[in-house]
Structures are given as structure tokens and as C-alpha cells.
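Hi R.,

As promised on Friday, here is the backbone we talked about, encoded as C-alpha cells. Could you run it through your design pipeline when you get a chance and send me back a sequence?
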């Protein structure tokens, strides 16, 4: 098991929101449990963890971790993609990271504009224009070009080869060093089948649980950081 003593790791986790009006928003199904499991594993290996999480998602349980773990954990809550951009571009500007696991489920599309107040429910139909959002992982790569960057690719119902192919394509596009590929239909609480794919399009490991993913990722980060 690779030790990560004094290494700085950022983990993004959970959902993001795009507001329609003052009280309504669109989001996704992410619970943040995988990101939280990864963070706990990093803390167990003595890393310092900056955990950026979406409102309402799971976070590492500090009460169960103990004081030593808690002092190495920084929690930053965000809600919208703009919040996330402000966090990485301003709040974390100048901070050095050895590795970054971008597990957050960032909306690919969000409402083009937020209506003031609450939209009255008097119409039978309501049209909302969605606009493509910026690729956060590309900005992360630009801001931290030397960090070991892990991307995550979620699909639905693809074969193993199709999933690996799409995940690899996303890795090339984003400049990540590794990607975690998974199907939504193969995730059920702690059961979580995933493939860890490297820059040579090789499957580094096949995981069956969230803990498998967390452990294998930390082993790979340790290998990269200590080489």
C-alpha cells in the first residue's frame, strides 16, 4: 500500500446545480459517496486533502476519522458551476497539488439565464434554453499542469470496449493522466464496477466496489508521486 505522507491531493465530488429561477434548479443523481470514499483512503495514507463538494453530497465523516485525519482535511462546499470556477480560479489559486481526482458530476448543460424571483406556474408548457458549460477538467489541467490528474467518465449501458473507448477519448481531450470509466447501471451503493484506464489505453485495474476504486487510485497516485 503506497504511502502519501505530506502529499497534497484535491478531490472534487458530488453534484452541481444550474438555477432556473430563485427556487428551482436542475441537477444530477450524484451522491458524492465515491469521492468521499476516495478522500478517506487518501487521509488514511497520510495525505493532505482538499475536498471540493457539491451541496447535499456525501463528505468524509470527520467524527469517525479522528483529530489527526481532520487536521489534514479541508472542506469547500460549492453549489453551481460558477461557484466551482471561483473556487479553482481564485480560492485555490497558487496552491500546489500532487494529484487531483475530478470526480464531481459537473452539468454538461445549464440554463442559459436564471429568471428573477419564481416563475409563475400558470402555463401548460415552459421552454428553458440550456447552454453548454465549460469543461472544468480542462481548466484544472491548465491551472495545475504538473499534477497527476484523474478524470471520471460515466456512461449508461455500454459494453466494456465501448466504455473504455469513450473514456480514453475523454482522457485525450482533457489531458488527464488516468480515467475512471463506469456505467450507471453497474453502480448500486457500495457496489461499483469501474475500469481504471491509463494513457496507453490499457486497463490498469477492474474494480467492483467504491473501496476498490479508492484503494487502486491511491496506489497509482503513490506510484506517480514517489517515482
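Update: got your reply. Pasting your designed sequence below so it's all in one thread:
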Amino acid at each position: 500500500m503506497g504511502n502519501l505522507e505530506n502529499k497534497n491531493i484535491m478531490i472534487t465530488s458530488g453534484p452541481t446545480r444550474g438555477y432556473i429561477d430563485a427556487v428551482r434548479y436542475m441537477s444530477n443523481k450524484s451522491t458524492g459517496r465515491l469521492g468521499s470514499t476516495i478522500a478517506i483512503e487518501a487521509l488514511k495514507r497520510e495525505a493532505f486533502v482538499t475536498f471540493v463538494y457539491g451541496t447535499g453530497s456525501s463528505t468524509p465523516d470527520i467524527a469517525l476519522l479522528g483529530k489527526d485525519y481532520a487536521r489534514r482535511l479541508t472542506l469547500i462546499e460549492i453549489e453551481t458551476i460558477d461557484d466551482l470556477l471561483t473556487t479553482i480560479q481564485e480560492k485555490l489559486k497558487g496552491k500546489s497539488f500532487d494529484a487531483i481526482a475530478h470526480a464531481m458530476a459537473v452539468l454538461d448543460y445549464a440554463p442559459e439565464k436564471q429568471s428573477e424571483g419564481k416563475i409563475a406556474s400558470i402555463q401548460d408548457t415552459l421552454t428553458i434554453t440550456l447552454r453548454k458549460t465549460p469543461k472544468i477538467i480542462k481548466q484544472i489541467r491548465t491551472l495545475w499542469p504538473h499534477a497527476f490528474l484523474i478524470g471520471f467518465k460515466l456512461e449508461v449501458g455500454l459494453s466494456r470496449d465501448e466504455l473504455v473507448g469513450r473514456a480514453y477519448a475523454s482522457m485525450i481531450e482533457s489531458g488527464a493522466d488516468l480515467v475512471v470509466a463506469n456505467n450507471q447501471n453497474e453502480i448500486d451503493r457500495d457496489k461499483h464496477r469501474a475500469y481504471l484506464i491509463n494513457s496507453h489505453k490499457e486497463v490498469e485495474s477492474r474494480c467492483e466496489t467504491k473501496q476498490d476504486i479508492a484503494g487502486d487510485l491511491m496506489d497509482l497516485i503513490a506510484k506517480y508521486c514517489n517515482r
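One thing I noticed while checking it: The chain has seven helices and 13 strands.

Thanks again,
M.
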